Amino acid sequence: MRERLIRLGFTSGALILALGVTALLISMFDHSPIDVLETAWDGAFKDGRRFSAVVNFWIPLTLASIGLVVTFTAGLWNIGIEGQMIIGAVCASWAGLYFEAPSVILIPTCILLGAIGGMLWGMLAGLLKLRFGVHEIFGGVALNFIAANIAIYFISGPWQPPEGGSAQSTPPFQAAATLPRISDDLQFNLLFLLITIGAIIAIGLLLMFTRWGLTLRAVGKNAQSALLLGVRTERVTLSAFMVCGALGGIAGAHRVLQAYSSLRPSPAGGIGFLALLVVLLISFRAWWVPFIAFALAAIIAGSTRVKTLLQLDQSLAGVLQGLIVLTILIFNGLADRLTRKDHHE
Amino acid sequence: MSDALVNSLNSIVAATTPLVIASIGETITERAGVINLSLNGSILLAAMAGFAAAQTSNSVIIGIGVAAMIGAAVALIIAFAAIELRRDQVAIGFVLTILTADLATFLGKPYVNIPGPRIPNMPIPLLSDIPVVGRIFFDHDLMVYFSFALVLMSWYWMFHTRYGLALRAVGENPQAAFARGTKVNYQRYIYTIIGGALVGVAGAAYSLSVKAGWFANAPMDGDGWIALAIVIFGGWHPFRVILGAYLFAALRRIVADLQSTVDFPLVLLNTLPWILMILTLMMVSSGTLERLTRLLPARLQRQFRNVLRSDPPAAIGTRFDKN
């Protein structure tokens, strides 16, 4: 009981510190932190349309985060998630631009191609690690930059608009690729929402109750002994990369279909990295993902409004999110230290 | 040698200096058993702050000092979280690399594209008159000479002083080092902070030496990750690290020059540094270098043992508890 109170206190302390530092930075730019907070809150929650923007950040962020729960459980640092999202976005864009079919076929095709693209890109990071000894952090970072350049290549080359390439965007997707929205007020897509909720439940249950989940955890805890106990660690590792990549790819497909309806440079927009922060914050527990992802998605959605109304750069959202994660990790450490001492005495 | 080639080599040396300084800083840190994964963001924040400070105070010295302090402060957070709080170094480093990059963008807004001071060029008398070599290596600013000195000093410190012996022991076998009376965690603090300060100086080298100023799409974004890979390629040895940095920069330059002569989409050429990074890491871990070493006579093998190893410090990323 006392330990719980200490932890709650430290977590609140961390949040207050993160908010305080951010408020200080805002005042340095001659803005009132209260104004910014109000504007951000309005930007995220004022009406159905604004709330929809939060949901539309929440969907890809949650998909990527839930994928990362899988890789982290297997002890893997899949920093390449951003690239897996980008390749997913590129593959979905191909269908959005050129695969002529009615909506009911086209949209699932986009999603499927996104998943396959992301899965293959994730598999590449896995193969580099397993076959060639390239640590997934370095392989992942390199694959991220390569993926970003591949997207730019298609935008400025083969897929450029007929009136000439501006390197800003491909032509808009076919009308059939437009995601149907639930209503005028709730402007998000039901299919993607269901996929996301399904992914949370599926991955959560798979990790808890199946042999695959058990082997993932075994490999993550101690790959050497798992191998000795007969777990095919290479296969498990590769499967983790592929599942995470596929979920990231679907997230990438959502980004291009929902946010732009065309392919643009850096379609993942840092959401993959943000997903890494989500998962670090909750120490890889699947059931927490949707809530933390929601809070961070609201910060992004709010910051777009702050940018338009108050001309504060959107990187402010990243600063606040980074500070929250850093302070919580550090304050958790302080709380650990404190409670550990209690046990000794 | 043609003038064009010499000039081009001269500019490669100038442009690679920040990469050399950052990689040496990280080498020192990792030799003590700590990973500072925040390099990419730290460099961005230090570059921005260094330029901003130099611009405001009109003194590049102050700019470099501020940049060094920022790098050291970020490193201190990692050391503190890892040593005192038992946090995962990689996790803290990753959060910091994201946070510092965003901070650089946010705080650097007022300094984008404005003119500012730059470290003046200072050819070294006599040395710069040597044909070819003089122009390539000794016709630069102080930051470049500092990088040369840094490589030599860090090598001498690591392999020829008892402090260096303690440093390596802390990274390889902290228990043994502790048993011999070395304060393991104290050493780790010191070298993480020094390494971080150097990373900060590398940031200042970008914004005050290579290309003065701060820009919306920071041109050095990504180089922090390359520096981390160069440390691995360099086998945690200063000489191989600087060699790796120059090789990398030279290849990058060749590729950039090719683009004007070869008909190949420019954007795909931009992927080459990253393909190169993957290939070098594949080469290091495949043991190619070790096989090459075995071809050398036994005596030479022993002498080059330090330069040719490719295993990381054995205790890297781990925690040391006295009890």
Q: Report the mean per-residue pLDDT of chain B as an integer.
A: 90
What is the name of the CATH architecture of chain B? Orthogonal Bundle
Largest sheet of chain A: none
The end-to-end span of chain A amounts to 17 Å
Structural domains of chain B: how many? 1
Q: Name the assembly state.
A: heterodimer
**Cα-atom radius of gyration of chain A:** 21 Å
Query: What proportion strand of chain A?
Result: under 5%
Residue runs with pLDDT of under 50 for 5 or more positions of chain A: none
Tell how many strands the DSSP assignment of chain B holds: 0
Strand content of chain B: under 5%
Tell me the number of helical segments of chain A per DSSP (H or I, 4 or more residues long): 13
Secondary-structure-based class of chain A equals mainly alpha
CATH class of chain B: Mainly Alpha
Give the beta-strand count of chain A: 0
Number of domains of chain A: 2
Write a brief caption for the model:
Chain A has 345 residues and is mostly helical.
Q: Which labels suit this protein?
A:
heterodimer, A: 345 residues, mainly alpha, 13 helices, B: 323 residues, ABC transporter involved in vitamin B12 uptake, BtuC, 72% helix
